[in-house]
Amino acid sequence: MSHGTMVANGLSPHQSPSEITDAKKAKLDGAVIPPSRVVHIRSLPGEAGETDIVQLGMSFGKMTNVLVLKQKNQAFLEFQDESSAVAMVAYFQANPAQVRLKPVFVQFSNHKELKTDASHAFQNHNAQAALQAAHSVMGSDEQSTILRVIVDNAFYPVSLEILHQLFIKFGKVLKIITFTKNNTFQALIQMSDAISAAAAKTSLDGQNIYNGCNTLKIDYSKLSNLNVKYNNDKSRDFTRPDLPTGDLNLDAMSLGGSSGVLMSPMPTYHHGLTPPQITTIGALPAQQTAVDFQEVREEPTIIWTQGLAPGYGIPGLPMGAMSAMNAMGAFGIPHTALGAARIGLPLTAAMGSAVILVSNLDEEMVTPDALFTLFGVYGDVHRVKVLFNKKDNALIQMADPHQAQLAITYLDKARVWGKQIRVAQSKHQLVQMPKEGQSDAGLTKDYVNSPLHRFKRPGSKNCQNIFPPSQVLHLSNIPAHVTEDNLTTWFSEHGAVKAFKFFPKDRKMALIQMNTVEEAIHALIAMHNYQMGESCHLRVSFSKSTI
């Protein structure tokens, strides 16, 4: 939050001489700064935000603006009346102030008011959210610190870590409990104080984590406290790092305790095991190990999945949500550079591998190209290796862990070539190509530079149209000379065609319904990128529509 608000007499986040003047004056013995409606706070901790500043001032009167200069560890708070600023400075001169347990210095500013620069809405939004939250708390007898969060229209899964990254920007997060109710991902989040809770609710309620989906619906909980028993992927008490992870075999909500207290859900995974890394992404972990997979034998790992969420500039945001990320950048969550093939959610330290293990494949039918096409529906496949000594197993390296989790979520237990395949996360970080001069009969292929990646273009609509395998396939890029008969004939080679229709307003697209989901999978593998003209190739994907 380093730009966007101007201070009268020339102070702005980019004009450090004025702000430095304030700090220097305070350090001079006997220096006198005349009273002002604007209070200057310095020596702030790096994580301090607007809500921390308004908490300092809310006891003294109505506040009208706030400016945080993170790069200078300073802030300015403007009151409606000068008398409120005088009371605040007098109090904290006698009782030294603290922000997030760090001593800070409070004094008058030599500037008389803060002026808002409307061209920088990001910082202004945070400031106004914090002020609005403070005013709502000041005018209400009910000061709840617990928020109930519902992720509506969830297209991507949501993790506890993602929620923590979102809400910590508005204050200290004490506890989080996540659960599924009525097939909807929900969470209870306990903030350290009512202002932080109100600021988070004001800023995030109704916002999409991803572009066009995963909408946050936030209201206050009637609970007075969250009683978290275990620190794991479903619940976390950030004030009690010593809590156990719990029984791995239980997966139920435990409701009990005194009135107004919710007990945490029982966990299903220990931190040392594979966590529910639902649709979260980013760069691969820094520590990668090269492994020779020629003799690798892995047992499939059961991956617990739940529903998930995008946004607000979290590290490694999905390309489909880039516009949303830029718009939500006000929340100050840093984002890293994304590869051309990045889609999905943020990567945390425990995100795991982008490599997945596929087992129970048909040894006679499986090829790297077939797996590239099928798994490419859910992300950009970088490498495929069919295991040399166990050809019903394959390792697939996706562009990032988020895409790997999407593939696991949608393709595990799918029927392909007459067998129910299993898809699980691999313990390995990358698929190694054969050494120079070493042949593996074409069982390992590199697709990093393939022109057929669906998600490499930033903002691609493909990121918003990812669906589980279905009988109905969406066809696009159909040239004018190709007829319904042509398409049904081609697709009937891979199963029975039950229905077909062109899009009324765009004949370049159509829907075709196969007799079974398995036949639709076979048709997609065979017909995606099918050449229908000199430079025209068919595009095939799963659809949620019906004919």
Automatic annotation (TrEMBL):
<dbReference type="GO" id="GO:0005634">
    <property type="term" value="C:nucleus"/>
</dbReference>
<dbReference type="InterPro" id="IPR000504">
    <property type="entry name" value="RRM_dom"/>
</dbReference>
<dbReference type="Pfam" id="PF13893">
    <property type="entry name" value="RRM_5"/>
</dbReference>
<dbReference type="Pfam" id="PF22976">
    <property type="entry name" value="RRM_10"/>
</dbReference>
<feature type="domain" description="RRM">
    <location>
        <begin position="147"/>
        <end position="223"/>
    </location>
</feature>
<dbReference type="InterPro" id="IPR035979">
    <property type="entry name" value="RBD_domain_sf"/>
</dbReference>
<dbReference type="Pfam" id="PF11835">
    <property type="entry name" value="RRM_8"/>
</dbReference>
<dbReference type="InterPro" id="IPR055204">
    <property type="entry name" value="HNRNPL_RRM"/>
</dbReference>
<keyword id="KW-0694">RNA-binding</keyword>
<dbReference type="InterPro" id="IPR012677">
    <property type="entry name" value="Nucleotide-bd_a/b_plait_sf"/>
</dbReference>
<dbReference type="InterPro" id="IPR021790">
    <property type="entry name" value="PTBP1-like_RRM2"/>
</dbReference>
<dbReference type="InterPro" id="IPR006536">
    <property type="entry name" value="HnRNP-L/PTB"/>
</dbReference>
<dbReference type="GO" id="GO:0006397">
    <property type="term" value="P:mRNA processing"/>
</dbReference>
<keyword id="KW-0677">Repeat</keyword>
<feature type="region of interest" description="Disordered">
    <location>
        <begin position="1"/>
        <end position="22"/>
    </location>
</feature>
<dbReference type="GO" id="GO:0003723">
    <property type="term" value="F:RNA binding"/>
</dbReference>
<feature type="domain" description="RRM">
    <location>
        <begin position="354"/>
        <end position="428"/>
    </location>
</feature>
<feature type="domain" description="RRM">
    <location>
        <begin position="471"/>
        <end position="545"/>
    </location>
</feature>
<protein>
    <submittedName>
        <fullName>Polypyrimidine tract-binding protein 2-like isoform X8</fullName>
    </submittedName>
</protein>
<feature type="domain" description="RRM">
    <location>
        <begin position="37"/>
        <end position="111"/>
    </location>
</feature>
<keyword id="KW-0597">Phosphoprotein</keyword>
